[in-house]
Specification:
Strand content: 25-35%
Structural class: alpha/beta
Distance between the termini: 10 Å
Number of strands: 20
Bound molecules: ligand 9MR
Helix content: 25-40%
Radius of gyration: 27 Å
């Protein structure tokens, strides 16, 4: 306690003395300059063709026999950032030839391609190609200039330009860290989306506050299930499943390299799950698969995910929402969903059984839901959780806690936390945010009070509370941005809510 108080006082002192800044903005650009040589351009996929710099300081490519025989250059592009590209090309052998700027990008060792800018170059005329490219989730980018209908012409280019607007600037006060304030009680975390996960400055800011992160969308079935490859695999075996991780890799990499824990969200959900998952040969025009095929697919899906994560990111993903939001708001029974339709009433139980079978030891499995504070729904969730406890497959319950300053009441929240704590399960708050109608001083104060009151309740249950996570960091990037629900404002400055959470700890 004394240690925490000292840290707090130190942090307050720092607050008075300075600010630290996280650069969110940086013009990044490149313009080719062949005055000293090839400027790191090289002959890529070139057969016997070759490149050289001409007396006029242009880059000349000769001896081509295929459209993709082209000069290329590596660019350290930042996934999530948009780049403007342009180049001037000239050829003297055909009346007209079509040119493209393309990118060869690599993820997990596999190279793939996109064509980004196009123009037809008339014989002997310098022609400009322009285009834009938003860098995807890849770890290597080679930009190159190729043709699409003139495999054997020589050509030259000059003024290859690339401009990107990297990251907006973050200046935030030097404030105490929630992850440190709460270190003796539970992990403190946030949700992070792909765009944020590819912005190093933003991630450094987040990591200064939080020690556990949930991908906001990037571990949901519509991100992880590779429908195209699954379809191909299903020709031989309709239970086969292919998965892909490209949109969550930036977060996993950051987490692995910076000692951040990741909470997996979510294996089974009625939302953000491709309809094709439930159909024969992953083809929505064909009938639904049988229960047996669906369970075998789920088994393969979960195994593939757990195996990949355990191999590439051992210990990083510490827990999973196995099933999310299965209970209907009005009836308190299972909601209508494809899972219910295809697998049947026990789909939640089967999902936990499968997850338990494949999860590495020590990975905690949660059922996650919202509106737990509302009694009808709470009863439904409670019954479901009890069934899972009877099967011994569940480790904990996750309260989403998407609240508003008017609803639910703090008493309702407390009663629901107590009820689930009495089960003896582990608990977590997975998606905390509190909306307000307007961004005014009065509402910000009320919001701060509610955050503080909720934190006091959660602290009372710290023995079972494993983690508390807000659903996003700054109001402008929240899923409910128009209702300012988070701890930091759109300028990344701590709000009264932040101070209330910090003070409660
Ligand atoms: O934050 C997520 C948002 O970006 C998506 O558009 C939305 C679509 O389903 O899902 C949001 O996350 C939800 C989470 O997965 C489950 N609980 C409710 C969250 C907010 O809608």
């Amino acid at each position: 306690m004394l240690k925490r108080l000292t840290a707090w006082l130190l942090a307050m002192a720092l607050l008075l003395t300075g600010v630290c800044s996280f650069a969110r903005e940086e013009e990044m650009g490149y313009k080719s300059d062949f005055s000293e040589g090839l400027d790191e351009w090289y002959a890529r996929s070139m057969g016997n063709a070759s490149i050289s710099v001409t007396e006029d300081k242009t880059l000349l490519t000769v001896g081509r026999t295929d459209n993709w025989h082209s000069p290329g250059r590596d660019f350290p592009l930042q996934p999530g950032t948009t780049y403007e590209l342009s180049v001037e090309v000239r050829q003297t052998q055909k009346d007209e030839a079509r040119f493209m700027i393309s990118v060869a990008h690599t993820a997990g060792g596999t190279e793939s391609y996109e064509n980004l800018a196009f123009a037809n170059a008339q014989k002997g005329e310098w022609t400009t190609l322009t285009g834009t490219y938003m860098a995807g989730p890849y770890d290597r980018f080679v930009l190159y200039v190729e043709t699409s209908n003139a495999p054997d012409i020589d050509f030259e280019f000059r003024n290859f330009e690339m401009r990107g607007q990297m990251q907006e600037s973050i200046e935030t006060a030097d404030i105490p860290a929630l992850k440190e304030i709460y270190a003796d009680l539970f992990d403190f975390g946030t949700a992070v989306t792909f765009r944020e996960s590819t912005n190093r400055q933003m991630m450094n800011f987040y990591a200064s506050q939080f020690n556990i992160m949930t991908p906001g969308n990037e571990m949901k079935p519509d991100s992880l299930l590779d429908v195209t490859t699954s379809k191909i695999k299903s020709i031989k075996d309709d239970t086969a499943v292919a998965v892909k991780f490209n949109s969550v890799v930036p977060l996993l990499e950051y987490a692995k390299n910076n000692g951040i824990k990741v909470h997996g969200h979510v294996l089974v959900w009625h939302n953000q799950t491709p309809e094709a998952f439930f159909h024969e040969h992953y083809n929505t025009s064909l009938p639904l698969v049988t229960r047996e095929v669906m369970l075998a697919r789920l088994d393969n899906y979960v195994r593939e995910i757990m195996t990949y994560l355990d191999k590439k990111y051992p210990g990083v993903v510490v827990s999973w929402d196995v099933v999310n939001e299965a209970i209907d708001d009005n009836t308190g029974k299972l909601r209508d969903s494809m899972w219910l339709k295809v697998v049947g009433e026990d789909f939640v139980a089967r999902a936990f059984e499968i997850a338990r079978k494949h999860a590495p030891e020590g990975v905690d499995l949660y059922y996650n839901d919202y509106n737990t504070a509302i009694i009808g729904k709470q009863n439904g969730i409670y019954e479901l959780v009890e069934e899972l406890m009877a099967e011994g497959t569940i480790d904990g319950y996750g309260f989403q806690m998407h609240h508003d300053i008017k609803f639910p009441s703090v008493q309702q929240i407390e009663a629901s936390v107590k009820r689930f704590a009495d089960t003896g399960l582990k608990l977590r708050v997975s998606e905390l945010d509190i909306t307000i109608p307007e961004n005014t001083e009065v509402y910000l104060k009320r919001q701060a009070e509610m955050y503080g009151e909720i934190m006091k309740i959660l602290i009372d249950y710290a023995d079972q509370m494993v983690a508390v996570q807000v659903w996003g960091v700054t109001d402008d990037l929240s899923w409910r941005a128009s209702q300012y629900p988070l701890l930091f404002d759109g300028e990344s400055q701590p709000k009264p809510a932040f101070w209330a959470v910090a003070e409660a700890g």
